[in-house]
Amino acid sequence: MHLHYRYNALPLAQGSALRVFINGVLINEIPLAPGPGQLEGQRTILVPVANLRPFGNTILFNYDFIPARVKKAQDPTMRTLRGEILCNSTLDLHGLALWTSMPNLELFANAGFPFTRLADLSETTVVLPVAPSSDEIALYLHLMSQFGSQTGYPALRVSVAEPNAIIDSGRDYLILGTVANQPAFNSLDSLLPVTLEANGVHVKQAQGYLSSASSIKSDAVQWMSGMLGRPIAPELPSNGQRIPDALIEEVVSPSSPDRSIVIIELKQNSSADLFADALLEHSQSQDITGSATLQFGSELKSYQLSVDAYHVGDITQFRIMRIWLTQHFLLLLFVVTLLSFLVAYWVYGWMSFHAHERLRLAQSVKYPNK
After folding, report:
1. Domain residue spans in the chain?
2. Do β-strands 2-8 and 83-85 pair in parallel, antiparallel, or remain unpaired?
3. C-alpha distance from residue 315 to each of 31, 55, 322 (Å)
4. End-to-end CA distance of the chain, in Å?
Protein backbone atom coordinates (compact mmCIF):
# COMPACT_ATOMS: atom_id res chain seq x y z
CA MET A 1 0.00 0.00 0.00
CA HIS A 2 1.40 3.38 -1.06
CA LEU A 3 -0.14 5.71 1.49
CA HIS A 4 -0.16 9.50 1.10
CA TYR A 5 -1.50 11.55 3.99
CA ARG A 6 -1.77 15.13 5.27
CA TYR A 7 -2.30 16.51 8.76
CA ASN A 8 -2.21 19.75 10.73
CA ALA A 9 1.07 19.48 12.63
CA LEU A 10 1.01 22.78 14.56
CA PRO A 11 -1.20 21.79 17.50
CA LEU A 12 0.40 18.35 17.96
CA ALA A 13 2.72 17.05 20.62
CA GLN A 14 5.16 14.15 20.44
CA GLY A 15 3.48 10.72 20.47
CA SER A 16 0.80 11.42 17.85
CA ALA A 17 0.46 8.67 15.26
CA LEU A 18 -1.48 7.45 12.25
CA ARG A 19 -2.39 3.78 12.67
CA VAL A 20 -3.51 1.47 9.85
CA PHE A 21 -5.76 -1.50 10.59
CA ILE A 22 -6.76 -4.37 8.27
CA ASN A 23 -9.92 -6.13 9.44
CA GLY A 24 -9.28 -4.90 12.97
CA VAL A 25 -5.59 -5.95 13.04
CA LEU A 26 -2.91 -3.25 13.44
CA ILE A 27 -0.41 -3.58 10.58
CA ASN A 28 1.45 -0.25 10.68
CA GLU A 29 1.96 2.83 12.85
CA ILE A 30 3.26 6.11 11.45
CA PRO A 31 4.58 8.74 13.92
CA LEU A 32 3.19 12.24 13.33
CA ALA A 33 5.84 14.82 14.13
CA PRO A 34 4.88 18.37 15.19
CA GLY A 35 5.58 21.10 12.66
CA PRO A 36 4.79 24.66 11.55
CA GLY A 37 1.43 23.85 9.85
CA GLN A 38 0.08 21.50 7.19
CA LEU A 39 2.47 18.63 6.54
CA GLU A 40 2.28 15.84 3.98
CA GLY A 41 3.88 12.44 4.18
CA GLN A 42 3.96 9.11 2.46
CA ARG A 43 4.63 5.57 3.56
CA THR A 44 4.88 2.20 1.80
CA ILE A 45 3.12 -0.45 3.88
CA LEU A 46 3.33 -4.20 3.39
CA VAL A 47 -0.15 -5.66 3.82
CA PRO A 48 -0.02 -9.22 5.21
CA VAL A 49 -2.14 -11.53 3.07
CA ALA A 50 -2.79 -13.70 6.13
CA ASN A 51 -4.98 -10.93 7.58
CA LEU A 52 -7.16 -10.66 4.46
CA ARG A 53 -10.57 -12.30 4.24
CA PRO A 54 -11.92 -13.95 1.09
CA PHE A 55 -14.18 -10.93 0.67
CA GLY A 56 -15.35 -7.80 2.49
CA ASN A 57 -12.00 -6.50 3.77
CA THR A 58 -11.92 -3.24 5.73
CA ILE A 59 -9.00 -0.81 5.95
CA LEU A 60 -9.20 1.65 8.85
CA PHE A 61 -6.95 4.76 9.12
CA ASN A 62 -6.95 6.03 12.67
CA TYR A 63 -5.42 9.44 13.47
CA ASP A 64 -4.41 9.42 17.15
CA PHE A 65 -3.71 13.08 17.96
CA ILE A 66 -2.06 14.26 21.17
CA PRO A 67 -2.73 18.02 21.31
CA ALA A 68 -0.03 20.44 22.38
CA ARG A 69 -0.64 23.56 24.45
CA VAL A 70 -1.49 26.46 22.15
CA LYS A 71 -1.28 30.10 23.13
CA LYS A 72 -4.50 32.12 22.85
CA ALA A 73 -2.82 34.66 20.57
CA GLN A 74 -2.30 32.10 17.85
CA ASP A 75 -4.70 31.61 14.92
CA PRO A 76 -7.69 29.51 16.12
CA THR A 77 -7.81 27.68 12.79
CA MET A 78 -4.32 26.31 13.42
CA ARG A 79 -5.51 24.70 16.64
CA THR A 80 -7.77 22.34 14.71
CA LEU A 81 -6.86 18.65 14.90
CA ARG A 82 -7.22 17.49 11.32
CA GLY A 83 -5.89 14.70 9.11
CA GLU A 84 -6.60 13.41 5.61
CA ILE A 85 -5.86 10.35 3.49
CA LEU A 86 -5.04 11.71 0.04
CA CYS A 87 -6.64 10.44 -3.16
CA ASN A 88 -3.33 9.43 -4.74
CA SER A 89 -2.95 6.61 -2.22
CA THR A 90 -2.94 3.21 -3.94
CA LEU A 91 -3.12 -0.47 -3.07
CA ASP A 92 -0.93 -2.60 -5.35
CA LEU A 93 -2.39 -6.08 -5.96
CA HIS A 94 0.18 -7.20 -8.53
CA GLY A 95 1.65 -10.62 -7.84
CA LEU A 96 -1.35 -12.01 -5.97
CA ALA A 97 -2.67 -15.33 -7.24
CA LEU A 98 -5.98 -14.67 -9.02
CA TRP A 99 -7.52 -18.09 -8.57
CA THR A 100 -9.29 -20.11 -5.93
CA SER A 101 -10.06 -23.73 -5.18
CA MET A 102 -13.69 -24.79 -5.36
CA PRO A 103 -16.20 -25.82 -4.10
CA ASN A 104 -16.21 -23.19 -1.37
CA LEU A 105 -19.59 -21.95 -0.17
CA GLU A 106 -17.92 -19.34 2.03
CA LEU A 107 -17.19 -17.32 -1.10
CA PHE A 108 -20.83 -17.67 -2.15
CA ALA A 109 -22.08 -16.50 1.25
CA ASN A 110 -19.55 -13.65 1.53
CA ALA A 111 -19.71 -12.27 -2.00
CA GLY A 112 -22.06 -14.29 -4.17
CA PHE A 113 -19.04 -15.82 -5.91
CA PRO A 114 -18.72 -17.21 -8.57
CA PHE A 115 -21.78 -15.39 -9.90
CA THR A 116 -20.44 -11.94 -8.96
CA ARG A 117 -17.20 -12.52 -10.87
CA LEU A 118 -18.88 -10.21 -13.39
CA ALA A 119 -20.75 -7.40 -11.66
CA ASP A 120 -23.73 -7.44 -14.04
CA LEU A 121 -24.07 -11.27 -13.70
CA SER A 122 -23.92 -11.59 -17.49
CA GLU A 123 -22.56 -15.16 -17.25
CA THR A 124 -25.09 -16.32 -14.65
CA THR A 125 -28.25 -18.35 -15.25
CA VAL A 126 -30.86 -18.73 -12.52
CA VAL A 127 -33.09 -21.78 -12.89
CA LEU A 128 -36.57 -21.32 -11.40
CA PRO A 129 -39.53 -23.72 -11.37
CA VAL A 130 -41.99 -23.59 -14.26
CA ALA A 131 -44.59 -21.97 -12.01
CA PRO A 132 -42.58 -20.43 -9.14
CA SER A 133 -44.41 -19.53 -5.97
CA SER A 134 -44.31 -16.05 -4.52
CA ASP A 135 -41.85 -17.25 -1.86
CA GLU A 136 -39.47 -18.64 -4.50
CA ILE A 137 -39.65 -15.41 -6.51
CA ALA A 138 -39.02 -13.40 -3.35
CA LEU A 139 -35.94 -15.52 -2.58
CA TYR A 140 -34.65 -15.02 -6.13
CA LEU A 141 -35.04 -11.24 -5.84
CA HIS A 142 -33.43 -11.30 -2.39
CA LEU A 143 -30.37 -13.09 -3.78
CA MET A 144 -30.07 -10.66 -6.68
CA SER A 145 -30.17 -7.70 -4.31
CA GLN A 146 -27.62 -9.44 -2.09
CA PHE A 147 -25.26 -9.90 -5.03
CA GLY A 148 -25.78 -6.29 -6.12
CA SER A 149 -24.98 -5.01 -2.64
CA GLN A 150 -21.64 -6.84 -2.79
CA THR A 151 -20.62 -5.67 -6.26
CA GLY A 152 -22.16 -2.20 -6.09
CA TYR A 153 -23.83 -2.82 -9.44
CA PRO A 154 -27.33 -4.10 -10.31
CA ALA A 155 -27.77 -7.59 -11.78
CA LEU A 156 -28.86 -6.30 -15.20
CA ARG A 157 -27.82 -9.19 -17.44
CA VAL A 158 -28.69 -12.27 -15.40
CA SER A 159 -30.59 -14.94 -17.34
CA VAL A 160 -33.59 -16.82 -15.95
CA ALA A 161 -34.37 -20.29 -17.30
CA GLU A 162 -36.82 -23.13 -16.72
CA PRO A 163 -35.88 -26.54 -15.27
CA ASN A 164 -35.49 -28.12 -18.74
CA ALA A 165 -32.69 -25.71 -19.70
CA ILE A 166 -29.50 -27.24 -21.09
CA ILE A 167 -26.35 -26.50 -19.08
CA ASP A 168 -24.11 -24.51 -21.40
CA SER A 169 -20.37 -24.07 -21.20
CA GLY A 170 -19.03 -20.75 -19.97
CA ARG A 171 -21.91 -20.09 -17.56
CA ASP A 172 -22.53 -20.49 -13.82
CA TYR A 173 -25.90 -21.81 -12.67
CA LEU A 174 -27.93 -20.99 -9.58
CA ILE A 175 -30.81 -23.45 -9.14
CA LEU A 176 -33.38 -22.73 -6.45
CA GLY A 177 -36.79 -23.98 -5.47
CA THR A 178 -38.60 -26.37 -3.17
CA VAL A 179 -38.30 -30.13 -3.15
CA ALA A 180 -41.77 -30.56 -4.62
CA ASN A 181 -41.67 -27.68 -7.13
CA GLN A 182 -38.22 -27.85 -8.76
CA PRO A 183 -37.68 -30.84 -11.12
CA ALA A 184 -34.16 -29.64 -11.97
CA PHE A 185 -32.94 -31.19 -8.71
CA ASN A 186 -33.88 -34.63 -10.02
CA SER A 187 -32.09 -33.93 -13.31
CA LEU A 188 -28.87 -33.16 -11.41
CA ASP A 189 -29.22 -36.12 -9.06
CA SER A 190 -26.20 -37.92 -10.54
CA LEU A 191 -23.95 -34.89 -9.93
CA LEU A 192 -25.00 -34.12 -6.36
CA PRO A 193 -23.33 -36.00 -3.47
CA VAL A 194 -26.11 -34.83 -1.13
CA THR A 195 -29.82 -34.54 -1.90
CA LEU A 196 -32.75 -33.24 0.11
CA GLU A 197 -36.03 -35.07 -0.27
CA ALA A 198 -39.37 -35.03 1.48
CA ASN A 199 -38.20 -37.67 3.96
CA GLY A 200 -34.84 -36.07 4.71
CA VAL A 201 -31.22 -35.83 3.58
CA HIS A 202 -29.55 -38.57 1.54
CA VAL A 203 -25.78 -38.86 1.14
CA LYS A 204 -24.42 -40.80 -1.82
CA GLN A 205 -21.21 -42.78 -1.55
CA ALA A 206 -18.78 -42.26 -4.42
CA GLN A 207 -18.14 -45.28 -6.63
CA GLY A 208 -15.18 -46.58 -8.57
CA TYR A 209 -11.44 -46.09 -8.39
CA LEU A 210 -11.56 -42.51 -7.11
CA SER A 211 -13.77 -43.62 -4.24
CA SER A 212 -11.28 -46.37 -3.29
CA ALA A 213 -8.33 -43.97 -3.50
CA SER A 214 -10.17 -41.39 -1.39
CA SER A 215 -11.08 -44.08 1.15
CA ILE A 216 -7.46 -45.25 1.41
CA LYS A 217 -6.27 -41.67 1.89
CA SER A 218 -8.94 -41.02 4.52
CA ASP A 219 -8.01 -44.23 6.37
CA ALA A 220 -4.33 -43.23 6.30
CA VAL A 221 -5.10 -39.78 7.73
CA GLN A 222 -7.26 -41.29 10.47
CA TRP A 223 -4.55 -43.86 11.30
CA MET A 224 -1.89 -41.15 11.58
CA SER A 225 -4.21 -38.99 13.70
CA GLY A 226 -4.93 -41.96 15.95
CA MET A 227 -1.21 -42.56 16.44
CA LEU A 228 -0.91 -38.93 17.55
CA GLY A 229 -3.80 -39.36 19.97
CA ARG A 230 -6.20 -37.19 17.98
CA PRO A 231 -8.50 -39.55 16.06
CA ILE A 232 -10.66 -37.94 13.40
CA ALA A 233 -14.24 -39.11 12.95
CA PRO A 234 -15.52 -38.19 9.49
CA GLU A 235 -18.82 -36.34 9.67
CA LEU A 236 -21.45 -36.56 6.96
CA PRO A 237 -24.70 -34.62 6.54
CA SER A 238 -27.62 -36.15 8.41
CA ASN A 239 -31.16 -35.28 9.44
CA GLY A 240 -30.23 -34.95 13.10
CA GLN A 241 -33.29 -34.34 15.22
CA ARG A 242 -35.43 -33.21 12.28
CA ILE A 243 -35.49 -32.75 8.53
CA PRO A 244 -33.40 -29.74 7.39
CA ASP A 245 -35.24 -26.65 6.20
CA ALA A 246 -32.80 -26.02 3.35
CA LEU A 247 -29.72 -27.37 1.61
CA ILE A 248 -27.01 -25.33 -0.14
CA GLU A 249 -24.62 -27.29 -2.31
CA GLU A 250 -21.93 -26.46 -4.85
CA VAL A 251 -20.54 -28.74 -7.57
CA VAL A 252 -18.55 -28.33 -10.76
CA SER A 253 -20.49 -27.83 -13.97
CA PRO A 254 -20.50 -30.90 -16.25
CA SER A 255 -20.03 -28.61 -19.27
CA SER A 256 -17.05 -26.53 -18.04
CA PRO A 257 -14.25 -27.55 -15.64
CA ASP A 258 -14.04 -23.99 -14.26
CA ARG A 259 -17.76 -23.27 -13.85
CA SER A 260 -20.05 -23.94 -10.91
CA ILE A 261 -23.57 -25.06 -10.13
CA VAL A 262 -25.01 -23.88 -6.80
CA ILE A 263 -28.32 -25.32 -5.67
CA ILE A 264 -30.56 -23.93 -2.96
CA GLU A 265 -33.11 -26.62 -2.13
CA LEU A 266 -35.93 -25.71 0.24
CA LYS A 267 -38.04 -28.16 2.18
CA GLN A 268 -41.16 -26.06 1.59
CA ASN A 269 -42.23 -22.54 0.60
CA SER A 270 -42.24 -21.30 4.18
CA SER A 271 -38.50 -22.05 4.38
CA ALA A 272 -37.67 -19.28 1.86
CA ASP A 273 -37.90 -16.36 4.31
CA LEU A 274 -36.08 -18.37 6.96
CA PHE A 275 -33.25 -19.13 4.55
CA ALA A 276 -32.97 -15.51 3.37
CA ASP A 277 -32.68 -14.27 6.97
CA ALA A 278 -30.08 -16.91 7.84
CA LEU A 279 -28.01 -16.14 4.74
CA LEU A 280 -28.01 -12.42 5.48
CA GLU A 281 -27.14 -12.96 9.14
CA HIS A 282 -24.28 -15.39 8.49
CA SER A 283 -23.02 -13.98 5.17
CA GLN A 284 -19.83 -12.49 6.61
CA SER A 285 -19.10 -15.35 9.00
CA GLN A 286 -17.61 -18.78 8.43
CA ASP A 287 -20.82 -20.65 9.26
CA ILE A 288 -21.42 -21.30 5.55
CA THR A 289 -18.40 -23.04 4.05
CA GLY A 290 -17.28 -26.27 2.41
CA SER A 291 -19.28 -27.92 -0.35
CA ALA A 292 -22.63 -28.42 1.42
CA THR A 293 -24.53 -26.62 4.18
CA LEU A 294 -27.71 -27.67 5.95
CA GLN A 295 -30.09 -25.24 7.64
CA PHE A 296 -32.01 -26.23 10.76
CA GLY A 297 -34.10 -23.20 11.67
CA SER A 298 -31.63 -20.39 12.33
CA GLU A 299 -28.73 -22.81 12.72
CA LEU A 300 -26.38 -23.65 9.85
CA LYS A 301 -24.07 -26.65 9.65
CA SER A 302 -21.44 -27.01 6.91
CA TYR A 303 -19.64 -30.06 5.56
CA GLN A 304 -16.53 -30.59 3.45
CA LEU A 305 -17.41 -33.65 1.38
CA SER A 306 -15.06 -35.81 -0.67
CA VAL A 307 -15.95 -34.31 -4.03
CA ASP A 308 -13.81 -33.44 -7.03
CA ALA A 309 -12.03 -30.13 -6.49
CA TYR A 310 -11.72 -27.66 -9.33
CA HIS A 311 -10.10 -24.28 -9.78
CA VAL A 312 -11.54 -20.96 -10.90
CA GLY A 313 -9.39 -18.11 -12.14
CA ASP A 314 -5.94 -17.70 -13.69
CA ILE A 315 -3.91 -20.68 -12.46
CA THR A 316 -0.73 -21.99 -14.08
CA GLN A 317 -0.08 -25.62 -14.99
CA PHE A 318 2.91 -25.65 -12.63
CA ARG A 319 0.71 -24.68 -9.69
CA ILE A 320 -1.89 -27.28 -10.69
CA MET A 321 0.88 -29.90 -10.66
CA ARG A 322 2.00 -28.82 -7.18
CA ILE A 323 -1.56 -28.99 -5.85
CA TRP A 324 -2.06 -32.41 -7.40
CA LEU A 325 1.15 -33.74 -5.85
CA THR A 326 0.22 -32.48 -2.39
CA GLN A 327 -3.17 -34.19 -2.69
CA HIS A 328 -1.54 -37.48 -3.76
CA PHE A 329 1.37 -37.61 -1.34
CA LEU A 330 1.51 -41.43 -1.30
CA LEU A 331 1.96 -41.49 -5.06
CA LEU A 332 4.58 -38.74 -4.77
CA LEU A 333 6.48 -40.79 -2.18
CA PHE A 334 6.36 -43.87 -4.44
CA VAL A 335 7.57 -41.93 -7.51
CA VAL A 336 10.45 -40.30 -5.59
CA THR A 337 11.51 -43.69 -4.21
CA LEU A 338 11.36 -45.29 -7.65
CA LEU A 339 13.37 -42.45 -9.21
CA SER A 340 15.93 -42.70 -6.41
CA PHE A 341 16.48 -46.40 -7.17
CA LEU A 342 16.78 -45.65 -10.89
CA VAL A 343 19.33 -42.90 -10.29
CA ALA A 344 21.25 -45.15 -7.87
CA TYR A 345 21.28 -47.95 -10.47
CA TRP A 346 22.56 -45.57 -13.14
CA VAL A 347 25.26 -44.14 -10.83
CA TYR A 348 26.34 -47.68 -9.89
CA GLY A 349 26.61 -48.64 -13.56
CA TRP A 350 28.56 -45.48 -14.39
CA MET A 351 31.03 -46.00 -11.54
CA SER A 352 31.42 -49.70 -12.37
CA PHE A 353 32.14 -48.91 -15.99
CA HIS A 354 34.85 -46.37 -15.11
CA ALA A 355 36.35 -48.74 -12.52
CA HIS A 356 36.68 -51.48 -15.12
CA GLU A 357 38.21 -48.99 -17.56
CA ARG A 358 40.84 -47.97 -15.00
CA LEU A 359 41.69 -51.61 -14.24
CA ARG A 360 41.98 -52.42 -17.94
CA LEU A 361 44.23 -49.40 -18.48
CA ALA A 362 46.43 -50.36 -15.52
CA GLN A 363 46.83 -53.92 -16.81
CA SER A 364 47.73 -52.73 -20.28
CA VAL A 365 50.43 -50.45 -18.86
CA LYS A 366 51.86 -53.21 -16.59
CA TYR A 367 51.85 -55.85 -19.32
CA PRO A 368 52.42 -54.04 -22.60
CA ASN A 369 52.02 -55.99 -25.80
CA LYS A 370 55.33 -57.15 -27.35
Report:
1. 2-85, 100-318
2. antiparallel
3. 40, 19, 11
4. 84
